Structures
1.
Amino acid sequence: MKKLITTVAVAALLSSTATFAVQQSSVVQADIDAFQGFFKKRFPELSLNDFSKGPYAMSKDKMLQFEAAMEMPPFEDLVEKGEKLWKKPFKNGKTYSSCFPGGDENIRANYPKWDAAKGKVVGLEGAIINCRVKNGEKKIGSGKGKLAYMGAYLTTLAEGQKINVIVPEGDAKALAAYNEGKKFFYAKRGQLNLSCANCHVYNAGKRIRGDTLSPALGQTTHFPVWRGKWAKKKGDGFGTIQRRYGGCNKQVRAQPFKRQKSEYNNLEFFHTVMSNGMEVSGTEYRQ
């Protein structure tokens, strides 16, 4: 009995230490509160999770269109393909799950992550690619295709899980990466001299060329996403959040950065942590 009590006590201590080790930065938490508070005040009729539906939550007609599209989503077969790819063993017999302890359904809500050992942010897609290479497989494309299918499968599995991206308290390098992402989000660029915030914070909900600008809050809850615009081009409609970043940069006539490098990884870090506490909404349609 004494040995059992000691074991339990040690386990409790380790658990407490682990919890302390991943405590959210107080600076970042203040940013989250201010960011979410801005949108709640501007759109008081919406609940926190409503923001995951973006422009559809701001118009009854658009919501009806969204719901109609989701009754028979055009991407179900690709999500199933992603599941098969995820579960297919590598040549060494291992699977992707071997790189992600804690259950497949718990992966999506915790990415992107700060990797203290590598001293950088690692996104979900980057972690999947790293897993392949670690197990002797070749890299795959980072914006669409197989990687997006697997990401969509994990997003579907994680539906209802709350986003919980941590910038560890007291980790100066992690906070610096977060601040670089924040700087990127608010910095103007390109010939149009626009920032992410210009469209998706200050002008969220307003119309532009017949479209409604989506709020930045909740934008990361459903990626990889299937877009009608992408389906009309060469491809099948699926793309990662960093593919979308590249498209946004092109739209303001700025040179896109390479995917899975520090610029977009840090941006995704900031962008996602702002939606902490929101539920992963699962794989969704966007026009």
2.
Amino acid sequence: MKARGKSLGLEAAYQVLENSRTRHTALVERMYEPARLFTGPWLCKTYTAACERTRELMAEAKIPRQRLETIVQAMRDPLKQERFRHLLSAEGLAAVPKTLAQRINAEQPVQTPCPPAEPKPLISGISSEVLDLLQDWYTPPQVFASLRRMLPERQFKAARLMIALNRANFHYAQLLSTLTPASQLTDPSRPKRKFADVTAEQLAEMEIEFEALNDEFLRCASLCGTWALELMTARCYLDRLMENARVVRYLAQNFPDELAKLQTILDIPMGREALAGLAKRTGRRRKHLVF
């Protein structure tokens, strides 16, 4: 490993890596609020842009789930017929993927609750989990100044949002701080800041809408990988179905609409080809989600 043109031994290289992992710990010592804070128009502009970006990325994250739902709806009625199930057994296609079968039967997956994490000491008012989460991101010290106004749980949620939206900057952190409910602030008795051209009722509505939107976005962010894997498994099974002439003939004669839906799903390319097609249709470059 080299640092500033010099070769380093293993011990020195390890020390450099350790220092890079903890660089934000040093930054929090220089936290300060900039002199320029949000004005009413700037708050509304930043809020609108953040909501638009969140909705766009959330819609992109939901694409695998929507295609899964299309497959489930198309497969549910045929699988209710015993004759079709016998045909699948005769053709060696009776083993429907478990996750797809659960969705078809409207079963809820079993979720093991996570044990509550033990609270860790704060570093200059910042949660150590937040520092670990942001260790690979360039984060201006002003961001930590906004995070310090929140409780540790809210800090962690804010850090997840900044990473997922690629918005680890002060403007977004200040927006999160401004629209944080009083119960999640370190000083809930501190009066809410007033903005010109923004009434207290409008600010309260923005706070509620922003909270609901971010909760739904983080939920989609945590599940989009699972949805993508389930979709890949379901498509592999559909490929086998569509390669079987007897199955296709049965569906064409008895369930033509469902067959058309399944063929539509298989006609959609997977992976980068699908993203490239989406970017071509929308006329702008799409960014991958980062979670």
